[in-house]
Amino acid sequence: MTRQKIEIKKIDNISARQVTFSKRRRGLFKKAHELSTLCDAEIALMVFSNTGKLFDYSSSSMQQVIQRHNLHSQELGLSEHPSIELQLELSNQTMLSKELAEKTRELRQLKGEELQEMTIKDLQKLEKLLVGGITRVSQAKEDRVLKDISSLKRKEVQLMEENWRLKQAQHLTPENGHSSECITIVCSSLADIPQDYDTSDTSLKLGLPFPD
Amino acid sequence: MTRQKIEIKKIDNISARQVTFSKRRRGLFKKAHELSTLCDAEIALMVFSNTGKLFDYSSSSMQQVIQRHNLHSQELGLSEHPSIELQLELSNQTMLSKELAEKTRELRQLKGEELQEMTIKDLQKLEKLLVGGITRVSQAKEDRVLKDISSLKRKEVQLMEENWRLKQAQHLTPENGHSSECITIVCSSLADIPQDYDTSDTSLKLGLPFPD
DNA sequence: GGAGCTATGTATAAAAT
DNA sequence: TATTTTATACATAGCTC
């Protein structure tokens, strides 16, 4: 329940931000559509999530609205000066390069590589960021591992039941003893779930010799 | 008062339509702005009234968002005959954008934010990277702190020597007792190097009341 | 990561100004 | 026609599943 009015500033909590994004985005698109219908307006709406995903809406066609917009904003779309587009691209590229340089630096710092001109305070912030990251990554790994283990255990139970049924069947037609033995061996090896999964590679164990 | 829920279809009454347009348009723009702020999204919104008037909003720059949108929808042909230079810049930009997206993703993963489609092996690699980073960052911080401390200690020794010389000088001309006392107090406070530098801000202690 | 719930905040239809 | 008011419809924060 919306127990309090929220302040309009970036939501820190990642999952809360994601939930709010998808809810409010839907609301926004609905309102845009309603406005275009009620008031016979031509509307284009583009939304990029902070993960870079694109969502867009247009009451007619996106290109059409963009071109109409270009007409309004100082005839930029008419290429009176053929170099205007080029200039735009160039400035855009400059910006991209800057962003790229910034991200690269940030990455190097997170990897502990470019720390000489940081203050003690900066280093503390970096440390906190890394601790947060490692906490989440470890948790994710843990979750994944536990999931894999329980799925393996389920398979083990299935195979043991299958095995038992096959054995029962062989008691009725006892002329073939080889395959029974073979299956028994394979199933017992499956029971060896690694307990030291933190250092071993559990994912390699997932390729079972049996199809689902 | 909104005495009845309205149906979403074109409003026939012209003045009612105009009123609704200006109210809902403002609401829509507000919502767009809130979404961009709350969720760190890049948004462009263009609205043409049925009288042809343009209203637009962009969280950054309209041109930038339109270009980003063009990149996504792969319709790069804004003009009929893009020049060779423009084509070059565009491909260059595409490359830059890809790199940027890649770095952004990597950063997010280091911060533990986008882990859903990583394998256990990937997660382990990430963990190692983070551990390496945190080791180096902590070491750098430690080094910095120790350097600050030893520099402070050197200063302390210098000041104590100076202090001692001043005292000696005063024994030769004993008519002024105040300044001696004052300097003694300051020097004893310098001896209090913080042992809990991990949580206190050592750098603040560097601004000594004495010039070098 | 989505779907549904509910209490509360916000937007707005209609009327007044 | 724009703004303000007010009663009501709608959106959504926080929560559960």
UniProtKB/TrEMBL annotation, chains A, B:
Domain MADS-box: 1-61
Any one of the GO BP annotations: cell differentiation
InterPro entries linked: MADS-box/MEF2_TF (IPR050142), MEF2-like_N (IPR033896), TF_Kbox (IPR002487), TF_MADSbox (IPR002100), TF_MADSbox_sf (IPR036879)
SUPFAM superfamilies in UniProt: SRF-like
Subcellular location: Nucleus
K-box domain residues: 86-177
Classification via PROSITE patterns: K_BOX (PS51297), MADS_BOX_1 (PS00350), MADS_BOX_2 (PS50066)
Entry's Gene Ontology cellular component terms: nucleus
Molecular function GO terms recorded: DNA-binding transcription factor activity; protein dimerization activity; RNA polymerase II transcription regulatory region sequence-specific DNA binding
Keywords, sorted A to Z: Differentiation, DNA-binding, Nucleus, Transcription, Transcription regulation
Name recorded for this polypeptide: MADS box protein
